[in-house]
Specification:
Layout (H helix, E strand, L loop, with lengths): L6 H6 L3 H13 L2 H8 L3 H15 L4 E4 L2 E4 L1 H21 L5 H4 L2 E6 L2 H18 L3 E6 L14 E4 L8 E15 L1 H7 L10 E3 L8 H9 L5 E4 L3 H9 L5 E4 L9 E2 L7 H4 L4 E9 L6 H19 L2
């Protein structure tokens, strides 16, 4: 091999201190802010960052008047740098230091209904424990792909698969027929599932287990509303519009009550769907302090909710 280093050799020369400066620069998008966080002067951070770029043979940041703008190369380097941070942490830090060290952005993917009912309200407690963590919450219907680093963590009702993923089950919750308290009181025990109108899933989610239950057991139901927006279903049920199938934990955070029914309906009620809840992360990021802190928080928070069901 000649005097000129190849890319792989440059990467092997990366030192932890250089990686630490890169991570602080990426997180704070400012040489001055990174220097303050690291206890260094700005000129030292700038010089070391430039040397790190030279050792890798790529430009990691564009220096602008507004601060540091990460390049595509920086985004490519970031997962490996965070994996190095995690490995360094395992060597030098015990669990009690995790809260003091965890900082940076954690992107969390979760379904809209769960985001509104459980995740967003819990963030005040997360912030109290980890004030330097910033959450980016994606509550879109489309699940983000963790293997492509579209998110750092996800809460899922179906178990994903992939060798790059680390997965843990947090609990299981049944869906039940629920309605506004006033409607439940007015109806009394149901003799038939058609005794009241239903709030149902739209046709794009006809294969969703709650939608399949309704189609199978109440095929002639009067439908007051069809929508695939779960939060809209909950709001409509709270208003007294009709009954809906709702996971049990939502009854504690929305103004809904379980519908009463006669023994004749018990066999079909026993077939109500059940949802598992999975916490999912990327294996390479699992021990990065910011991700590990959020992982531990949501594992404890959502298990507590599941146990109260």
């Amino acid at each position: 091999m000649g005097a000129k280093k190849q890319d792989g050799d440059r990467a092997k020369d990366a030192r932890w201190e250089d990686v630490r400066i890169f991570l602080a620069s990426h997180r704070y998008k400012s040489l001055g802010a990174a220097a303050t966080r690291l206890g260094l002067d700005t000129s030292t951070v700038s010089r070391r960052l430039t040397a790190f770029e030279a050792s890798l043979g790529v430009r990691l940041f564009e220096r602008t008047r507004e601060g540091l703008l990460p390049t595509r190369a920086a985004e490519n380097v970031l997962p490996a740098a965070e994996a190095m941070e995690a490995a360094h942490g395992r060597l030098t830090r015990d669990a009690s230091d995790l809260e003091a060290e965890a900082e940076g952005v954690v992107r969390v993917s979760v379904a809209p209904g769960m985001a509104d009912a459980f995740v967003a309200p819990a963030l005040v407690r997360l912030r109290a424990k980890h004030p330097r963590i910033e959450i980016e919450l994606d509550a879109s219907i489309r699940p983000l792909d963790l293997t492509r680093h579209e998110a750092d963590l996800a809460l899922r009702s179906t178990r994903p698969h992939g060798a790059e993923l680390v997965i843990t089950k947090l609990g299981t919750a049944p869906w039940i027929a629920a309605a506004a308290s006033s409607r439940v009181k007015r109806l009394g025990p149901l003799g038939s599932w058609t005794d009241a109108p239903w709030i149902a899933w739209d046709r794009d989610l006809a294969s969703f287990p709650p939608a399949r239950w309704l189609a199978q057991h109440v095929p002639k139901a009067e439908i007051a509303l069809r929508t695939s927006q779960f939060t809209s279903q909950l709001a409509a049920a709270e208003s007294g519009l009709g009954m809906a199938l709702v996971p049990v934990p939502y009854l504690r955070v929305r103004r809904l009550r379980a519908v009463l029914y006669d023994d004749a309906l018990a066999p079909s009620a026993a077939l109500w769907p059940r949802d598992d809840l999975w916490l999912v992360g990327h294996r390479a990021l699992r021990d990065v302090p910011r991700v590990a802190a959020v992982w531990s928080f949501f594992a404890e928070e959502m298990r507590r909710i599941a146990q109260e069901t």
